[in-house]
Amino acid sequence: MNTKVKITYLGHSAFLLKSPAGKTILIDPFLSQNPGTPVKFKKPEQVDYILLTHGHEDHTGDTLDIAARTGAKVAAIVELIALLKSDGLDGEQAVEFNKGGTVHLDDFSVTMTNANHSSSLGGRYAGDPAGLVIRFKDDITVYHAGDTNIMPDFEIYADLYKPDVCMLPIGDLYTMGDKEAALAASMIKAELFIPIHYGTFPPLTGSPDVFKEETERRTAGESTVRILKPGESL
Ligand code: ZN
């Protein structure tokens, strides 16, 4: 895979992406309270964009603090943006969209997909949960599936977006587990999969090794799985 995009895993479902033009993008920045996040990534000082899959606290995490400190723009589904604004997010920093829609930001775009899950923030309805397809200009496409169960929509996204890299939840209990995720991977057909949302807390029992073995078997080696440790980059 030939790319200028740098992808760093921050633990759980959180990622730091550096775009070819040097923009810093955080996805689901659950950092300060995330037991997996290395100390040096807990309080990012320079962030251009925060992208959110849904409202749950282990995904929205430090969004408001980081946005206030860095001036980062925050992109999420309409209802979640409304809650964040009522909690203090500056309207100038808010980027709202909805499923099927695309927002164009600097040298990348973000398209919102379905996710089969639920979503709330502090007990309030936060709109639907979503996945995010991030297309870097003249470079790779990254699909962060958010929290989700397996769903037929994955075949549509494979056809439409042809993701190169895909982050898939495998932890079980709150999302699909390792075996469901491997079948999902065979539907999405990305070149590279990164397992997420496992091991952060003891009940998230899905195994990245089982996911890797099952995915590589189901795709006959067409897709590979990279198990990233928090702090590790691609
Ligand atoms: Zn969730």
Give structural notes.
With 234 residues, this protein is an alpha/beta fold. The chain has one domain (6-225): Metallo-beta-lactamase, Chain A. The protein is built from 6 helices and 15 strands. It has helices spanning 57-60, 63-70, 78-86, 153-161, 178-188, 208-218, and strands at 6-9, 15-18, 24-27, 49-51, 73-77, 94-97, 102-105, 108-114, 120-121, 124-125, 130-136, 141-144, 165-169, 192-196, 224-225. Strands 7-8-11-12-13-14-15 form a 7-stranded mixed β-sheet, with helices on one face. Strands 1-2-3-4-5-6 form a 6-stranded mixed β-sheet, with helices on one face. The chain has a two-stranded antiparallel sheet with strand order 9-10. Helix 4 runs parallel beside helix 5 and helix 5 packs parallel to helix 6 (208-218). The longest helix has 11 residues, at 178-188. The model has no long low-confidence stretch (mean pLDDT 97). The structure holds zinc ion. Residues 54, 56, 59, 117, 147, 174 line the site of zinc ion.
